[in-house]
Design a protein that fits this description.
Blueprint (H helix, E strand, L loop, with lengths): L6 H8 L9 H6 L11 H6 L16 H7 L10 H15 L10 H14 L1 H15 L7 H6 L7 H23 L4 H17 L3 H23 L5 H22 L25 H26 L9 H30 L5 H23 L12 H14 L13 E2 L5 H10 L3 H11 L5 E2 L2 E2 H24 L19 H5 L41 E8 L10 H7 L6 E10 L6 E9 L3
Parallel strand pairs: 1-2
Antiparallel strand pairs: 2-3, 4-5, 5-6
C-alpha cells in the first residue's frame, strides 16, 4: 500500500491559497493577505497603505464568525454572499468530518477547502452540496417527481441547484479552453456525483463517473510520458483513484461502470499486512470490485443448460479470490490485535472494524456461490448472514455523527450494501427482515444511490418470492408465471419497507464474530444445504434495472415486449428464475420482469 501523500505533495498540487477578501494592496501585489484589521500585518511591516473593499465581513478561519453565522437559518440570509458564506461554514463544521467517514477526514476537511478557496467551481459545488446536506428532506426523491413532471423545490434547493449549475458551467468552460487542472476537475466530479446522488440522479451520476474515469486514464497517460509531475501522480493514485474505485464498487451493484480500468495491472497481493484500518479498507474494496466483475464473467456460463460445470479458468479464479480473502482476514486480525495492544479500541475503530468484517462475510458468500446455478446454494451460508447482521449493528457507528444521527449521504463504504445483499440472498425470514430494517438506519444516500432504491428492489424480490412460495405450498404443481405479478404488491411506504422490530434481535458484545471456514477445496453443493427455506423454483436472481425507452434486455419474449412497450418511462427489474421440467427434471432458466420505481 502507498503511504499517505505528504504535505508538500498536497501543496504542489493545490498551490498557494488566494485571498478572496484581502486588502487592496495585497491583491495588487499578488501576495497572501493575513486580513488583519484595520491594517494587515504585511502592509504594516512594509509601511504601505492598507485598505479593504466594502464592510468588514470577517473570514472563514475566524471561529467566532463561523459560529455566529450558523446561528441564523439559511432561509433568513439577506443576500447571496451571506448565503454562500454560511453554506461554507456549515460544510466545514457539519459535513467535512462525516461525508467520507472517519478514514477520509484529511481530504474533506483540509484538501477540498484549500482547493475551493482558489477554484470558484469547487467553491460553488461545496456550497451546493452543503445546502442539500442541511435540508435534504423537503425533496427526498427528485427522480420520483421528475418522472411525474412535478417540481416541489424550496428556496434551499433552488439555491443549491443554481450554484451547482454555475459550478458545472465553470468546469466545462475551463476544460474547453484547455486551461483547467485535471485534478481539480476530478475533485469537482466527485462533488457533482454527490449532488446528483442527493437529487436521485443515479443515471447522471453514472455518466459523471464514466467521464471521471476517462480523465484518470488520460492523466495516467500523461504521467507515463513524463508530462505530469511525480507529486501530482502520487496525489492521483493515493487519494483520487481509491475514491473512484470505492464509488465504482458500490455502483456495480446497480449499473455497469468502467471501474475495471482503474484497477492495478497486476493482481494486488498482500505481502506485508496492514498498517492501518484505511489500508485494510482499500484492500477489501479491491477484492469487492474484482469479485463483482468475476460474477459478471460467470453469469453467461450459469445461463447454460442443466449440468453446467464451471471451466477450469473460472475455478482457478474463484480459488484465487478465496485465497486472497483468507490472506486479507489474517492481516486484518493481526492489525486489530496490534491496535488492541496499544490500548482500548476507540468507538470509531470498533465500528470501522465491524464494517470491514461485514464486507468480509459478504465476499465470502459471493465468492462461494459465484459458480453455482441454484439460489439454494446460499442456504449453506446462514452463519455468514448472521455475522453480517450482528456486525452491522456496530458498523452503523462508522458513519454516525457526534449526536448519533446518520448523515444524509456518505462516500465511505456503507453498511447498506452488505445488508442489502443479505436481504436478497438470505431466505431465513428473521435475518432477512432484520437486514432490511438495519439498512433503513444507514445514511440515506450511499455513494450516488439512494438506499430507498435498494430497499424497493429488495422488497419487490421478497414479495415475488413469498407469493410464489405460498402458491407452491398450496398446490401440487408450479405456480403461475411470476411475470404476471403486478407491482401493487410492493407499493408500501418507505416506513413499511424498513419496518421490523429489532428489540428481540441478538446483539454482539464487542468486536467478535464467528470466523468463516475457508474450505476452498470444493464447490458448494446445494443438495447439502439446510432445508429449503424458500423453494428453488420460487427464488429469483436479480440481474439489472432498465427502462423501456433504453431497450429490452436479452431473453425478453415478443409477448412481454408488446405488453410493456407503452410504458417507456417506467423502470423494470429484470430477474431470472430456475424452473424444473416436470418430465425430465432438468432445470431451465426463465426470465421475469416487474415494474419498480427507481
Amino acid at each position: 500500500m502507498r503511504a499517505p501523500p505528504s504535505t508538500h505533495v498536497r501543496d504542489a498540487v493545490i498551490g498557494p491559497l488566494r485571498s478572496r477578501r484581502g486588502c487592496k494592496t495585497c491583491k495588487v501585489r499578488r501576495v497572501k493577505c493575513g486580513q488583519e484589521k484595520p491594517s494587515c500585518l504585511r502592509c504594516s511591516k512594509t509601511g504601505r497603505k492598507c485598505e479593504y473593499e466594502g464592510p468588514n465581513l470577517g473570514t472563514f478561519s475566524s471561529t467566532p464568525a463561523t459560529l455566529s453565522i450558523l446561528d441564523k437559518p439559511l432561509s433568513s440570509a439577506p443576500d447571496t454572499v451571506w448565503k454562500e458564506r454560511r453554506a461554507f461554514a456549515y460544510y466545514f463544521q457539519h459535513i467535512a468530518l462525516f461525508i467520507g467517514g472517519g478514514l477520509e477526514v484529511d481530504f474533506w476537511s483540509t484538501i477540498v477547502p484549500q482547493i475551493c478557496r482558489s477554484e470558484p467551481a469547487v467553491w460553488d459545488a461545496i456550497i451546493s452540496l452543503s445546502t442539500l446536506f442541511e435540508s435534504p428532506e423537503p425533496c427526498p426523491d427528485i427522480a420520483f417527481l421528475r418522472q411525474r413532471d412535478v417540481l416541489l423545490l424550496n428556496q434551499y434547493h433552488r439555491d443549491a441547484i443554481s450554484w451547482y449549475s454555475r459550478s458545472m458551467s465553470q468546469v466545462r468552460q475551463r476544460l474547453e479552453r484547455g486551461d483547467g487542472d485535471v485534478l481539480v476537475g476530478l475533485v469537482s466530479c466527485i462533488l457533482f456525483m454527490c449532488i446528483e446522488g442527493f437529487q436521485g440522479g443515479a443515471a447522471q451520476a453514472t455518466r459523471l463517473y464514466c467521464q471521471g474515469v476517462q480523465l484518470i486514464v488520460t492523466l495516467r497517460g500523461q504521467i507515463a510520458s513524463g508530462v505530469v509531475s511525480s507529486s501530482k501522480a502520487a496525489w492521483l493514485e493515493d487519494i483520487i483513484v481509491p475514491i473512484f474505485i470505492r464509488l465504482g464498487a458500490t455502483a456495480l451493484n446497480f449499473s455497469t461502470v468502467p471501474v475495471g480500468a482503474l484497477l492495478p495491472d497486476v493482481q494486488h497481493v498482500l505481502t506485508q499486512g496492514f498498517t492501518s484500518l484505511k489500508s485494510a479498507r482499500e484492500a477489501i474494496v479491491l477484492l469487492l470490485t474484482e469479485t463483482q466483475l468475476f460474477q459478471r464473467v460467470c453469469l453467461p456460463h450459469l445461463l447454460k443448460s442443466d449440468g453446467f460445470q464451471p471451466p477450469p479458468e473460472l475455478v482457478n479464479q474463484r480459488l484465487a479470490l478465496f485465497g486472497r480473502l483468507k490472506v486479507w482476514h489474517a492481516a486484518f486480525t493481526d492489525l486489530m490485535e496490534t491496535l488492541r495492544m496499544k490500548g482500548a479500541l476507540s468507538p470509531q475503530q470498533m465500528s470501522t472494524g465491524a464494517l470491514l468484517l461485514a464486507y468480509h462475510e459478504m465476499l465470502y458468500v459471493m465468492i462461494g456461490t459465484s459458480t453455482c446455478q441454484l439460489e439454494t446454494a446460499n442456504d449453506a451460508y446462514l452463519l455468514q448472514f448472521q455475522n453480517i447482521v450482528d456486525q452491522s449493528k456496530f458498523a452503523l457507528g462508522a458513519s454516525a455523527r457526534s449526536d448519533g444521527s446518520q448523515p444524509p449521504l456518505t462516500l465511505e463504504l456503507g453498511i447498506s450494501i452488505p445488508l442489502w445483499f443479505t436481504s436478497l440472498k438470505c431466505r431465513e425470514p428473521k435475518l432477512r427482515q432484520t437486514a432490511l430494517s438495519l439498512a433503513g438506519q444507514a445514511p440515506a444516500v450511499q455513494a450516488f444511490y439512494k438506499v430507498n432504491t435498494g430497499a424497493r428492489w429488495s422488497h419487490t424480490i421478497i414479495t415475488i418470492e413469498e407469493v410464489c412460495a405460498v402458491a407452491m405450498k398450496s398446490t401440487e404443481g408450479l405456480p403461475e408465471s411470476t411475470n404476471q405479478l403486478q407491482y401493487s404488491h410492493c407499493e408500501d411506504s418507505d416506513i413499511s419497507i424498513f419496518g421490523s422490530d429489532l428489540g428481540s434481535q441478538p446483539s454482539t458484545p464487542g468486536l467478535e464474530f464467528v470466523p468463516s471456514p475457508y474450505s476452498v477445496d470444493s464447490d458448494v453443493d446445494a443438495g447439502t444445504a439446510v432445508t429449503e427455506l424458500v423453494p428453488e423454483e420460487a427464488r429469483i436472481r436479480p440481474i439489472n434495472l432498465f427502462r423501456v425507452q433504453d431497450g429490452f434486455p436479452p431473453g425478453t419474449t415478443d409477448e412481454e415486449i408488446a405488453r410493456w412497450s407503452p410504458y417507456r418511462e417506467q423502470s423494470f427489474l429484470h430477474y431470472l428464475r430456475n424452473e424444473r421440467d416436470p418430465i425430465s427434471g432438468a432445470w431451465k432458466i426463465a426470465h421475469g420482469f416487474t415494474p419498480i420505481d427507481y
